[in-house]
């Protein structure tokens, strides 16, 4: 189908839209300028400094929405990578995204970014900012299906850290890394239920925790300072002991953005945490359910590895992604809203004023790190 473009200026941006467990993924296919940089991490810095206006065009309204998520395929410096990728959301560029890896696995096979698809699974090596993630895409009779991926080394960073949370007092959290750092808290601490409470209440509690951890706990990653930041807070149903029943969680990341999926990097971090606490064994698979949509991923720790000083695990996460459409976006020079906008009603007022990102004049807890 040939699409006739309406009046516009500059390059049109073409995308393929997918969703994984309800979480959108807008994959940029064309119209994006060259991304400079020697490697995926330096390309991530480049787009942040030079091309951030295009993230807003594609993620924000009127073309996207507050919770839109995107991926830009880039060249990777790793010989074993089939593709590199940069992730984008309502606040910037994340370092890992499991729901995107699940969608990109299918996309890479369907759009021929890998040479020869193989049955029953085609391996797609995706170089994410956090490192190389190996995806395995079901492939049969020319059709792609479910995807599983093996994470970068994941580890419990600290458990039982008490922070002072605006509006809630002292809250004890665990912090774990699954390609991005998350704080984990049982939603019951706030009198909430991850599957039944109003999203607004879950967002307020999780955002307050994120803000507190960001200002009170200093994070560290053994391989790169670019990875050492808190991406969000995951509220759980507290069901961390092994069970064949699903356990639910909801992830609030970036600027109070709500993941509709069970969160691939969050499942990775949560499995690492459960393994660290001795609650699950290697190869013991658990099912993780999104508190937002009920969609499910599975996750299991498959191998013990080291990551700097940390005892880490490789986690396998599995899920399904689906195509929702293709679009071509344009801009008109006399449209005063063409650059994109967000309704600023998601953050609690006190956080908007205090600015989530402020890190100056913070007192950091020194936390016990696991070796
Ligand atoms: O599945 C994930 O890992 C991602 N979903 C949105 C937030 C995380 O980056």
TrEMBL record:
<dbReference type="InterPro" id="IPR008794">
    <property type="entry name" value="Pro_racemase_fam"/>
</dbReference>
<dbReference type="GO" id="GO:0050346">
    <property type="term" value="F:trans-L-3-hydroxyproline dehydratase activity"/>
</dbReference>
<dbReference type="Pfam" id="PF05544">
    <property type="entry name" value="Pro_racemase"/>
</dbReference>
<comment type="subunit">
    <text>Homodimer.</text>
</comment>
<comment type="similarity">
    <text>Belongs to the proline racemase family.</text>
</comment>
<keyword id="KW-0456">Lyase</keyword>
<protein>
    <recommendedName>
        <fullName>trans-L-3-hydroxyproline dehydratase</fullName>
        <ecNumber>4.2.1.77</ecNumber>
    </recommendedName>
</protein>
